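Hi everyone, sorry if this is the wrong subforum. Our group has a chain we'd like a structural model of before ordering constructs, and none of us has done structure prediction before. Sequence below.
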Amino acid sequence: MNKFGKSAFFALIAVILLITAACGNSGKETGKDEGASQEQGQTTEQAAGNTDAASLKGKKIALVMQFNTGTFSAQYIEGVKEQVEKFGGKVQVFASDNDLAKMSANLDAAINQGFDGILLDHGQAGALKQGVNRAVEQKIPVVAFDSDLKVPGVTVLSQDDQAMASKTLELLKQDAGGKGNIVKIWVAGFAPMERRQVAYKAFLDSNPDIKEIAAFGNAGNPALDAQSQMEAILKQYPNKGDISAVWAAWDEFAKGATRAIQQAGRNEIKVYGIDMSDEDLQMIQDPNGPWVASAAVDPKDIGRVQVRYLYQKLHGDNTDDSVVLDAVVVKRDDLPKEAVNTTQLGEYVQGWSGRTQGNADWMKELEQAQ
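Answer:
Right subforum, don't worry. Here is the predicted structure as tokens:
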């Protein structure tokens, strides 16, 4: 090979090496760009799935209630308002006076008025499902309490109703020595009542020495109606020992029965209830009163937890379809002699208040932003 040939050969090799190096670098840069692009895509996707917590300030929340009777409902509303206000929002309560048609109309009004989120308290699927579906279609999040709704995307909170009934009935059995005649105060047509009835029937089936001698209940003016009907039952069974206990499936029923028993001087009859409020607690703490125990969840806690799940939906979080709140049994024997209210009750009954269900880390940021 001559001098010119050698020079051409080495020049060709150099060109090949340069092309190879350039291709290698180009490949590395492309890979880097693709990685950055993928990372950016993930970040964008995450941002689209979750709303900035601070932007949730000022939300308008509708609370649509089947009824708002009694102190339990009043304290539940307090819990809802407290948590919404901590998040910088405002609540409007739509009371339906135990009228399902009115509740359905109130739900439609909340949708039409452009509320950012809707809370439902009780109600039945037959009356609410159409409106709830419309809310979901319009991207308005819905969280219900004590309802039989089963709509995709709607979270339903409930108390552990069968456990509440079983706990109070077992305590009744223990105090009555495993036998006796009892009165049941209960009403059909409400999801939590129906669940409590399941436990009640199972209890009677497994305890043949405990017999139901009367049963009644009316959701309209429940405390007063329970009082008048209990007065009639006491006249029908006038002798001490005729009735061992009353099992009331709602605290409003327990109030009425307690007043009737006290006025008749029949405090040997014990009352066992479900649900708890400040007024209920005062009656249970009365050392001469017949109401001795109740299974309950802090009504304020119920409201707080329900609001948290609604705001999770507003934030874009995935939420459970069903959330169950465990109850505790509040017994007179566990309480101090001095009067206490439900805010103080956690000092004496473990697990009463302070539930953290529904909490998310970003909620602290939202509260601090207010």
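For your construct planning: The longest helix spans residues 3-49. The two ends are 86 Å apart (CA to CA).
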